[in-house]
Each structure stands twice: as C-alpha cells, then as structure tokens.
Amino acid sequence: MVYNIDMRISRILEKDQAAAVIDRFLPGMRAKVEGQPAVAGMTLRKLAEYAKGAIPEKVLAAINTELGKIELDREETAEEMAEQLINQPLTKEAAEQISVGEQTAIYPGRPWRDKSGKRIQAHGGALFYEDGTYYWYGENKDRTDGKCSIWTWGIRAYASKDLYNWEDKGLIIQPNLMNLQSNLHPTMRVDRPHILKCENTKKYVCWIKLSGEEACFVILQADTFLGPYEVVVENYRPFEKRVGDFDVIKEEESGKAYLFMDADHEGIIGLELSEDFLRVVREVSRQYTGLHAPFCREAVALFERSGKKYMLTSGMSGYIPNKSDAAVSDSWISGFVSIGNPHPEDGTNSSYNSQISQIFKVPGKKDLYISIADRWVPGYPVDAAKADMIERAIAAHYEPERYQVGPEEKKALMDSPMLASANTSIADYVWLPLEFDEEKVSIKWQDEWRLEDYE
C-alpha cells in the first residue's frame, strides 16, 4: 500500500517523506493545517474540492503521483485496529454518571440522562412507538471525542412509558470491528438511523446513511424492534445517487413507504420503497433543486397532518446550526412547496441552535407533534450575526462575486466546529411541540413543557 490524496491529511503528515511532498507542492499549508484539526481530518482531495480552485488539478495530480512512490510503513491488521478501538475510552462526559430523580417534564437544550444517570446517546435519532412503549434510538457517540477515528459506535436504543424517563436497552445494532470495509465499522460515518415496521414481511427495517466518501445506505432488518438486526445490503445508492440526509415514512392508509433524501446535494428527491421496504422502486418527486451550500437542504424530517404532507429541512453547514425550512404537499408523490421558516420567533436564525432529525406524532394525543432535534455543538452558540457570517463564508466558495467575506470571517469559519473535530458525545437534545395555523407550522421555544398540557 502507498500514500495517496484520499488519505487524511493528518496521516500523510505523520511521515516525513510524505510531509516533504506536501511542503514542496503546497508550501505553508502544513503550518496552517496543524492549527486546524478540522482541516487535518479531511482528505487532500476533499480539501482541494473545498478550496474551489486554490489547488489546481495538475498540482493535485502531481502530489498524488509523488505520494504514490511512498509505501506505508505497515498496514494495521483488522485485529490490531479492533483492539485499539475497543480500548478507546468513553469520553469523560459520556462516562459520567449522576444520580437523577424522576423527570416530569421535557427541558429542551439541557443534558438529558437515562435512569442510570448517564447522558443519553441517541443522536440524529428518532422515536418508535409500540404496545405502550416508546423507543428512542440513534447514533451512539459515547467514544466520539473529535480526536480519535471513531464516528459512531453502533446504534443505541432507550425505552420509556412516558417520554420523560428512559431506560438504556443497549446497542440494537452493533459496530462491526473486524471488517474494515463494513459500513458499520466505527470509523465509517454512520448517521441518522430510521426504522419502519413492514406489515408485509413483519420485519423491522432500518435504513442508515453513511456520509463522507461512502455516501450510501446500509439497510438492515430484524424480527423485533430491539433486534438483533442483520445487514441486508451495504453500499446502496438509489439510482447511483450519492446519499445525503434522509427520512422514511409509511403511509398508513396505503401501507406504502417513501424515502426522501438529499441526492448529490442537488436537491431532495422523493422515492417509493418496495413492498418489503428494502429497496427503492421509483422516483416520485424532486424539490429544492439548483441550490448550493449552505442553501441546499439536508436533515429531512417528514410527517402527515389533516391530509397534508410536510417536510422540514435544514441548510447544509455541518454541525453548525442554521435556519430551517418547512414545505407542504398534498401527497407523497407530488412536489413540495416551501412555506417558510418553522421557527418564526427564533432571532438567532439557527433553529434554536439545533437540527431536526424527526417529527414524531404522539399516539393518543389529538394534535401533538414533537420536533426531535440535536444541539450538536452546545459549546458553540450561534446568534444572528454569526449565522449571517457562516452563511456568507460558505456561500462565498460557490459565488465569490456575490458573497463578500473578509479574512477574519474566513478564519472564523475554519475555526468553527467541523464534522471530524467535534466532541459529539456531549451533544444535547431540543424537543419542542409543533403549533399549527391552518397549514402553517411553527416551533416556539419553551424552557420546559409537559405532555399533560396537550389534549
């Protein structure tokens, strides 16, 4: 094996001979990278894409050629890497166990602990209701400190009877430590699991997205909600589209299921699933096309109310929160039309410093829908001024003539929490009820709220 531009920059710079190649072709870059761990976590190819022409293609090709002459000292075996991963400790915050009493309300934005007193690890998650029990499941980030190579350590689930107090049910989907190419390896960017029960097969079907270079789905199924889940297909790209954030929903009346996903960052496409929910059979709609970051849409969240279909999305700025958008349609096979920001009272333009992952209709409540959201980087609050700066700084990569950004603002963007360098084990949750005015939807801040206050 040899070095190449698809390796992380930090790994290239570990070897003097490889670092010398970088110094020769890109003088001064190493000093800049060493002070920015988010950039060091990128591949050189990804950095070149992000730099929008600052690294010419011929220079990148020349670097790749020279790196290809350098052999890796030794490839780690799967067993050695697995041992290192297993020995990676929980983050301090994830390991912390604090005695907690019974919770009688929901407190958006505060650390949420399970019955044992540990932080709940169900990020990018969703709720599932069955036989009087709520299940909350999501990405287990208890080892993800922003420094090690672990992105997600399996999918964890919790159970509750009241949506306030949660019992840890463990990992319902285990990481695959021994297969370095597995979509479920801890170093893969496993994101946003969504589970539906298929009445045709009586199976629980879980779709999970991989971000980063893989940009694909891994699909699993199980006989019970808590598993065990078995992988059905890996590296799945519907119609060869690179996969971004998504949601799946089952239409109760017809039993059909639909998947809406960010496709190649070129728009949100709606797709009908097969009768067993294990593959895509056809495209049914396209919306939010012709946009670039940070305006193109991700973090898709779907729900249905009074015959109308709704889609909530965020802009694309990584873990930095931004303004959401709501869209409505008369059916899952028709295009969606934007109806505006669902956080009209949020002066920060950051969706209350959070990103929505699901809208959950509470069974037995006439009109209670909960926005399930993550506050990925609680130590990096965004206000209106910062939201504007981040928006312009990202947009300037695509339209530098239209969006003016100064050197200090560019530096502020690069110093912000990036995907590869964020300690997401401390991410908090922002659960808030939705309000409706005819077909308009809004989410308003409450420091605390109770389900009992809703019919």
Write the layout of secondary structure elements.
Blueprint: H1 9-12, H2 16-25, H3 29-34, H4 37-40, H5 44-51, H6 57-67, H7 78-86, H8 92-95, E1 123-130, E2 133-139, E3 155-160, E4 167-173, E5 190-198, E6 203-210, E7 216-222, E8 230-236, E9 243-250, E10 257-263, E11 268-273, E12 280-287, E13 298-305, E14 308-314, E15 324-329, E16 337-340, E17 355-361, E18 369-375, H9 384-395, H10 407-414, E19 428-437, E20 440-443
Antiparallel strand pairs: 1-2, 2-3, 3-4, 5-6, 6-7, 7-8, 9-10, 10-11, 11-12, 13-14, 14-15, 15-16, 17-18, 18-19, 19-20
Helix pairs in contact: 2-6, 9-10
Provide structural commentary.
The chain has 455 residues and is an alpha+beta fold. The protein has ten helices and 20 strands. A four-stranded antiparallel β-sheet has the order 1-2-3-4, with no helix packed on it. The protein has a four-stranded antiparallel β-sheet with strand order 5-6-7-8, with no helix packed on it. Helix 2 (16-25) packs antiparallel against helix 6 (57-67) and helix 9 packs across helix 10. It is globular, with a radius of gyration of 22 Å. It starts with 8 loop residues before the first helix and ends in a 12-residue tail after the last strand.
